[in-house]
DNA sequence: TCCCATGGTGTATAATTATTCATATAATGT
DNA sequence: ACATTATATGAATAATTATACACCATGGGA
């Protein structure tokens, strides 16, 4: 079903932007977006997305996307953002142009973040080919990139 | 009850050294150490220690001590370990001697890790005073320091 | 000393999350 | 195209975790 991907992306985006502390809560947030599922499905989704539940002073425990703790990547991210030139799409594939030599390090950041909606990357010297998951939109890919490398926000 | 501290330390040490995926499991590990409590107590303890539950490829989800994600501190830790000279105890207080100028940064690392068994620190230029929680042993303090700054292992 | 407030714990139970089972639908091989 | 296998999902339920309540011990004040 094509809706699973949409739902997973919605979950990622919700969890990335607000503090959610239970599956019921997430359920009703999805409901507001017109997505009606059951708690059982969310339980499976969260496991699939490897979402963690971490201590939060305000809400006790909240869900957190994995790899967000890679704060040590900040330097790498800034560097990567500098080398980023543009992204275009053709034939369901994404093509990122970078400054010469930057492609590999940017691609490796994306791989490391491993967003499920990007199946993989192939990098040359100044070009990265992004192979998206089926039925993922360009917008989804771009959002995903920004989640991975926030500094790209201004450059896309 | 004085046993609470002992139990909390045991929990920290268990979680730091092995993958635990449920409170029942933790319960029986404590039981093997002769500590008999109930699941309700562990639930409260884990909340108190701000233990997170994170995705694990092997066991699904496991408990994880907070602040372990501060990998970005590695540099700071190496630096701190270099400046560390010795630790001694007197009157239930710990006294760390450091190279001149190192005391504050080491103390700040300890404060940031905020182990509950160390109430606080006071740092001068080459000396840190450690104020331990009641009924915490010297051994506990040292283990705690090593958890915070692993590089100290060889120097203590 | 006597209260009262606080903190820690167990028991019982509520709330939350994971799983089993059944089913439908889509994908794959022949 | 058909059979077979894999994937996705909900309903019901099991498993896990959190909490309400009661109780006890301790440590200040008055």
Characterise the protein shown here:
In chain A, strand 5 (118-123) and strand 6 (127-132) form a beta hairpin. Chain A has six helices and six strands; from the N terminus they run H-H-H-E-E-H-E-E-H-E-E-H. Chain A folds into two domains: 3-64, Arc Repressor Mutant, subunit A (Orthogonal Bundle), CATH 1.10.10.10; 71-152, 2-Layer Sandwich (Gyrase A, domain 2). In chain A, strands 3-4-6-5 form a four-stranded antiparallel sheet. The first copy, chain A, has a two-stranded antiparallel sheet with strand order 1-2. With 156 residues, the first copy, chain A, is α+β, with helices and mostly antiparallel strands. At the A-B interface, strand 1 of A face strand 1 of B. The first copy, chain A, binds a DNA duplex (30 and 30 nucleotides) through helix 3.
Features of the shown structure:
156 residues; 4-stranded antiparallel beta sheet; homodimer; Arc Repressor Mutant, subunit A; DNA-binding; 6 helices; 6 strands; alpha+beta; Gyrase A, domain 2
Short synopsis of the structure:
The structure is a homodimer of 156-residue chains. Helices cover 43% and strands 22% of the residues of chain A. Chain A is α+β, with helices and mostly antiparallel strands.
């Amino acid at each position: 079903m094509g809706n699973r991907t949409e739902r997973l992306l919605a979950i990622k985006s919700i969890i990335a932007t607000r503090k959610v502390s239970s599956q019921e809560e997430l359920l009703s947030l999805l409901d507001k977006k017109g997505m009606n599922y059951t708690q059982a499905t969310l339980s499976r989704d969260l496991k699939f997305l490897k979402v963690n539940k971490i201590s939060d002073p305000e809400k006790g425990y909240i869900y957190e996307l994995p790899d967000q703790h890679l704060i040590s990547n900040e330097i790498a991210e800034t560097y990567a953002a500098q080398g980023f030139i543009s992204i275009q799409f053709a034939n369901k594939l994404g093509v990122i142009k970078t400054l010469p030599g930057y492609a590999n390090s940017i691609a490796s950041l994306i791989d490391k973040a491993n967003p499920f909606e990007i199946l993989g990357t192939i990098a040359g010297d100044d070009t990265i080919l992004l192979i998206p998951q089926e039925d993922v939109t360009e917008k989804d890919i771009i959002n995903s990139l920004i989640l991975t490398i926030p500094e790209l926000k201004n450059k896309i």
